[in-house]
Design brief:
The complex is a heterodimer of chains A (696) and B (584). Chain A is α+β, with helices and mostly antiparallel strands and 696 residues long. A six-stranded mixed β-sheet of chain A has the order 12-15-16-9-17-18, with helices on both faces. Chain A has a four-stranded antiparallel β-sheet with strand order 8-7-10-11, covered by helices on one side. Chain B contains 22 helices and ten strands. Classes of the chains: A alpha+beta (696), B alpha/beta (584).
Chain lengths: 696, 584
């Protein structure tokens, strides 16, 4: 009994046609799409900027040291030619450069410099010259060089300075620190608003897309032919319109943008890494393939586990629902123990499936985390070598550690995103499949009538629901304007079918149906159906108030509604209801009796004032009090209208102008009541057997 | 709050070792995780100072080993704690379902199926979160933040103090957003529900929609619901969209404070660069406990609310085995059913459903019941089987008040064929064997024949193993009735009850079934509720009910010759029977 509960695929693999189709719905929202791109850019840049700023803080503010390159102008020119970006500071004709820049020089150049520099060896800190700084430096008796602008002081000496003195000497660094602080703050704010508006704009786009799909699908579905709609379980169509479309929205909000964001962050990280240090960047990239392999394995495992879990979950839910609705059967056979035993088995299976899914997740996440740490370790190890040989600065190394973490964080939930993607694929496929169904009644006619007389003519009509199983065979009759025709016959004779043909719920295969001598196919569907109103056997009422059910969006005034109800004698029972016309009908209008529902449907027809009515009389038992009212209502309804009656009550039939007797799809007798009684044919027998005891 | 937890206590206690081991792993890796930044710090400082390669290598190897240990530990705590919470979920769900099965029928009228379903599904999920993630987040958050704070304060107290100041805001944000998000989410669900109801209604009433050309009207209504849905969703996005960015924002601000405060400390020579990098890593570690704290509060709130809802059901007392829990009387082997001034009024009704009914169903006879809808006949059957609880001494079986008989023993007397056949989505065979799985194959074949199922089974591809769709949708009404007849026969009951159970079966088949039944059930009691006089002909005695009163009682012959309801109905039906025969 595996999967008839849930025969629909829950997940499906990537399908570019479906993706394309989903995206085609965004065409009308170019501004939003633009906003998404801008926000995505802002938030990605802001997120990447943070580690870069922290690197700058460390390298440019916190750890600053200079070395002298001497005063040989030839050498200085050589350096500035080869490394035009390097800043050379000159103090009293001696040139200084940043130590980290020095480290980038070739060994030969470094050696050359070292041999040139004889006086100012070692690392220096350079500060600007003013009265305060001069005073302090003198206090510490440090070896220094200075001119009118700058002073250089040995780094080791600087470490002995007091806090307050350092504040003055390093005032430039404090200023820079604050400047970077402001930049960092801007980045944090940009990330906040960028991410928010990105979420907001994608959600809005997703909502618009969802609405477009829903509206399109709704429109399409309700215009499909009854032939198609009666074949489809209502529940399935509802699922298509609701939860399946919802998966497409999830795809938008949780997958697309997250994917793009994650991807751009990852690409951005790699870019920054390579820019900071080509070699370290390459090391980081090297860790991608194994991560991708692990991710794809985990994805597959997670999908399988998820499928299994969903399957058992729906089985369990169905079991609970069924045994709650069937509780009286369980009780009456006192099978509680047995039912509980089976439940426990399914429940246990569910736990196992849940644990199975948990194991996949519990393995995958720590493994990815471990990879992240390993990458950091490898970078630190490799980086330490590079640092020693001067290829990277400490700030770069620290930034790397952060960037690598950033690189791995999107991978943590990538398998969940894949699951959403897959269920969106499955949902999308089902939605689009339904959207591609083309089974409507062709609405090709364009005729409308100003004044409908109400003459109906069936000419040699043949009709079948299924090929070659004729339900109506060669039916011909005509009804004069304002007349009533009653159709009688045993169940299955094809009476009800006739009511569906005139408003073209189904199209006939052979013959012709004419309204006022015009073939009904030549009218537009809308016009045709507004001339003819069928009253169905089982009255369908929508949830809403009584007034709304009569009016059905016509926008009639309350007086008109009451008038319509009064004509068919529905007003009497409505007035007795607590909220009268504003009484809300429950699900399936269970708060009304069958007779009251009939009356309400009569009122609905009168409110719509058609020229022709088709009436399928209810066979269901109605209490005698309402029955009388229904009869009165019916008479009011038929007044001045062409009426086709599928009648079960003798009194109704006797009032008809013509009686048609159907048997096995053929019209076998035709005439007035008296004609047919004298004929002593089928009608006579029917009358004798079925109607006699109703009392006349 | 503690009162509600009572239900969970034994379940938590049962898995104490899983929790202990899981939490041990959790705390251990919490500690180990805070070691990683220490390694990074030492490595950075080593790089800056000497660049001693062997020292670096040993640091790195230890760091990797720690990371591997953490990965294993992470798996282990999930294994133990999620393992426990999934098991608790299973056990609590099983307990709840078991309780459902023994609840009195009234509880099912008071609580719609959807509500009971929600308790066994969504609420269970909340319990799982409560016993799993909430505990983890709480313990993890507590230990992690303690360890990290200690570490940070050891590194540099003044910097640490300034850095952690904004962090509690994160917790408040989550608590604040949590409840509001919940409310807006509920609103979305509500509109979503309205939308699906509308779609369902339109599709169910599609004939009316088409006949009245109301496609555009409903399209407009659908569009309005769609717009409302979008608005509700976007109002949630307004909160939700700010949620994570705001947390990241605060994390960014603390980082900024760290750079300024830590930077100052480095400029002042009071902190090393390595310490700064370690602090950066610690700060990231502190963020999760703060988020976790907020989630814990929300999860606990939600979990307790769910637990309360589950407790409400668990507290409904079971169906009483005997009235007032008195010791059960031994059930008589056989006996007459005596109805002694039986009256019953549904709660809230102003008119009794049964009014002082007195009669006897003699052991070994077939008793027929005729009556219109609302005449009280279904109520009578429900009282006999104690689906509804009768007053004391109003119904006697073998001279024993049925309210003193163990309810299961009483019900085992009956084979019941309900008016509306209810089958489970299982094979036809399992449905027949529902109440008696031990039935031999020969007996099963016999029953199938008597119930007139044989020709139907021949039509099904899998025969008796054909799966019945949900609520028996793949079978016709008549087939369903016959399966449920077979189900009742399978227990070979002392008393067989047909609650209008042949209404969907054509007269010919009905006759066959009744004939076979008479043979099989000779000497046993049968109760036949029917609207067909022809069916009731086989009864030894017939009771006619109207408006809760027994208006006629006698043999079929007596009643036919008596003026009254029975004779009237009989007359009408004999005419329509002629019609049937005419048509054949």
């Amino acid at each position: 009994m595996s999967d008839f509960f849930d025969s629909d695929e829950i997940v499906k693999n990537y399908d570019s046609a479906i993706i394309k189709r989903i995206f085609s719905y965004t065409k009308n929202h170019k501004v939003l799409l633009l906003l998404i791109v801008i926000c995505l850019l802002i938030s990605t840049i802001a997120e990447l900027a943070m580690p870069i700023i922290s690197q700058k803080i460390i390298d440019d503010v916190l750890i600053v040291s200079y070395v002298s390159v001497g005063n040989n102008s030839m050498l200085v020119k050589e350096i500035s030619d080869e490394f035009p970006k390097i800043k050379l500071l000159s103090i009293h004709d001696t040139y200084f450069i940043r130590k980290k820049d020095f480290m980038l020089f070739s060994n030969a150049l470094q050696k050359k410099i070292e041999s040139e520099v004889t006086v100012f060896k070692g690392e220096y800190y350079i500060a600007s010259v003013n009265q305060d700084s001069l005073k302090i430096v003198k206090n510490y008796n440090a070896e220094l060089i200075l001119d009118s602008n700058l002073l250089a002081i040995q780094l080791d000496k600087l470490k002995t300075f007091s806090k307050s003195d350092l504040k003055i000497i390093r005032s430039n660094d404090y200023k820079k620190l604050n400047l970077y602080g402001v930049l960092f703050f801007i980045a944090v704010c940009a990330a906040l608003f960028g991410t928010f508006f990105q979420t907001w704009s994608t959600s809005l786009t997703g909502q618009y897309v969802m609405k477009s799909i829903r509206m399109q699908l709704f429109d399409k579905t309700i215009h499909q032919s009854l032939n198609f709609l009666t074949r489809q379980p209502v529940g399935r169509l509802v699922t298509r319109l609701t939860s399946d479309v919802e998966t497409i929205n999830e795809f938008f909000t949780d997958v697309v943008v997250a994917f793009i964001k994650d991807l751009s962050v990852m690409i951005g990280v790699i870019n920054v890494l390579i820019n900071m240090s080509l070699r370290l960047g390459l090391v980081a990239i090297l860790s991608i393939p194994p991560v991708l392999i692990i991710t794809s394995i985990a994805r597959k495992k997670a999908r399988d586990a998820f499928r299994k879990q969903r399957k058992i979950l729906s089985k369990l839910n169905a079991y609970i629902a069924e045994h709650i609705s069937g509780i009286s059967i369980v009780k009456i056979f006192s099978r509680q123990n047995h039912v509980v035993k089976i439940f426990k088995e399914i429940n246990h299976d569910l736990m196992k499936a849940n644990l199975g899914e948990m194991y996949v997740m519990a393995t995958f996440r720590p493994v990815i985390e471990f990879f992240s740490t390993t990458s950091i370790a490898v970078i630190l190890w490799y980086g330490s070598g590079l640092y020693k040989s001067g290829f990277v600065s400490l700030g770069t190394l620290v930034a790397f550690v952060n960037l690598v973490r950033m690189f791995y964080s999107p991978l943590q939930d990538i398998s969940e995103k894949f699951t959403i993607l897959q269920s969106a694929m499955a949902g999308g496929e089902r939605v689009f499949k339904l959207l591609d169904v083309q089974e409507n009644i062709p609405d090709t006619g364009n005729k409308t009538l100003q004044n409908v007389q109400g003459k109906i003519e069936f000419k040699n009509v043949w009709f079948s629901y299924k090929e070659n199983e004729w339900v109506l065979k060669d039916i011909s009759f005509s009804v004069q304007p304002g007349h009533a025709v009653a159709i009688v016959g045993y169940t299955g004779a094809g009476k009800t079918t006739i009511t569906s043909l005139l408003p073209r719920f189904w199209d006939i295969q052979k013959g012709e149906i004419l309204l006022d001598d015009i073939p009904i196919r030549e009218f537009s569907l809308k016009a045709l159906r507004s001339y003819i109103r069928p009253v169905m056997q089982d009255v369908f009422l929508f949830s809403g108030t009584i007034a709304e059910n009569i009016d059905l969006g016509l926008g009639l005034s309350r007086e008109k509604i009451v008038e319509a109800a009064t004509i068919v004698h529905a007003d009497e029972f409505i007035q007795k209801l607590p909220q009268k016309y504003d009484t809300v009908l429950g699900e399936g209008a269970s708060n009304l009796s069958a007779g009251q529902r009939q009356l309400l449907s009569f009122a609905r027809v009168v409110a719509h004032n058609p020229e022709i009515i088709i009436l399928d009389e209810a066979t269901s038992s109605i209490d005698s009090e309402t029955e009388h009212l229904v009869q009165l209502g019916l008479e009011a309804l038929m007044e001045n209208r062409t009426t086709i009656l599928i009648a079960h009550r003798l009194s109704t039939i006797q009032h008809a102008d013509v009686i048609l007797v159907l048997s096995e799809g053929r019209l076998i007798e035709k005439g007035t009541h008296n004609d047919l009684i004298q004929l002593k044919g089928v009608y006579y027998n029917l009358y004798k057997l079925q109607f006699q005891n109703q009392g006349i | 709050m503690w009162k509600e937890l009572r239900t969970l206590k034994p379940l938590l206690a049962k898995h104490w070792w899983r929790y202990t081991l899981g939490l041990l792993f959790l705390i251990t890796i919490d500690y180990a995780q805070t070691e990683i930044p220490q390694f990074i710090k030492r490595i950075v400082d080593t790089i800056l100072a000497s660049g001693d390669e062997t020292l670096l290598q040993s640091y790195l190897i230890f760091m990797l080993l720690t990371a591997a240990g953490i990965a294993i530990g992470r798996f282990m705590w999930r294994f133990f704690i999620h393992g426990a919470s999934r098991r608790i979920e299973r056990d609590l769900r099983a307990r709840l379902f078991e309780h459902y099965m023994v609840l009195p029928m009234k509880a099912f009228q008071d609580n719609p199926t959807g509500e009971l379903m929600a308790r066994a599904t969504n609420d269970m999920q909340a319990i799982r979160m409560l016993t799993g993630m909430a505990i983890v987040a709480f313990i993890d958050g507590f230990f992690m933040s303690t360890i990290v704070l200690v570490r940070m304060f050891t590194e540099n107290p003044s910097v640490a103090l300034r850095v952690i100041l904004p962090l509690p805001i994160v917790t408040f944000i989550i608590i604040f957003f949590g409840s509001r998000i919940g409310k807006r989410f509920k609103k979305i669900q509500e509109i979503y529900g309205r939308m699906s109801t509308l779609v369902q209604e339109v599709l169910q009433g599609i004939r009316v929609v088409k006949a009245f050309v109301k496609e555009d009207f409903f399209k407009n209504r659908f569009e309005k619901e769609n717009d409302a849905y979008r608005t509700a969703n976007m109002s949630l996005v307004l909160l939700f969209g700010f949620f994570f960015p705001l947390i990241n924002f605060i994390a960014g601000i603390t980082m900024l404070i760290l750079f300024i405060a830590g930077g100052n400390a480095i400029l002042e020579n009071s902190m090393s660069a390595g310490t700064l990098t370690a602090m950066i890593a610690y700060l990231e570690m502190l963020l999760w406990p703060m988020i976790g704290a907020g989630f814990t509060v929300n999860t606990i709130q939600r979990g307790l609310a769910s637990l309360k809802r589950i407790n409400e059901i668990l507290q409904i007392p079971q169906e009483e085995k005997t009235r007032n829990g008195a010791g059960a009387v031994t059930i008589p082997q056989r006996g007459n059913f005596v109805f002694n001034n039986l009256s019953f009024t549904y709660p809230g009704a102003n008119k009794p459903a049964l009014d002082s009914v007195t009669f006897t169903i003699s052991c070994g006879t077939t008793f027929g019941i005729l009556g219109r809808i609302g005449s009280g006949k279904s109520t009578l059957l429900k009282l006999m089987t104690r689906i509804l609880e009768p007053e004391q001494n109003q119904i006697l079986y073998g001279n024993v008040d049925i309210t003193t008989i163990d309810i299961d023993q009483l019900r085992k007397l009956f084979g019941y064929v309900p008016q509306e056949s209810f089958l489970f989505s299982d094979s036809i065979k399992n449905n027949i064997l529902f109440a008696n799985p031990d039935l031999s194959d020969d007996e099963l074949q016999n029953i199938i024949q008597i119930a007139g199922l044989e020709p139907d089974l021949a039509l099904f591809p899998q025969g008796i193993d054909t799966i019945v769709g949900e609520k028996g949708l793949t079978l016709s009404g008549g087939q369903k009735q016959r399966v449920s007849i077979a189900r009742a026969l399978a227990v070979n009951p002392e008393i067989l009850v047909f609650d209008d159970a042949l209404s969907a079966v054509d007269t010919e088949t009905e006759e066959k079934i009744l004939k076979a039944l008479c043979m099989l059930r000779k000497g046993k009691t049968n109760i036949l509720v029917s609207n067909r006089v022809s069916t009731l002909q086989i009864a030894d005695c017939i009771g006619v009910f109207s408006n809760g009163e027994l208006i006629q009682l006698g043999t079929p012959e007596e009643l036919l010759n008596q003026e009254g309801f029975f004779a009237e109905i009989a007359h009408m039906q004999s005419l329509s029977k002629e019609k049937d025969s005419y048509y054949e």
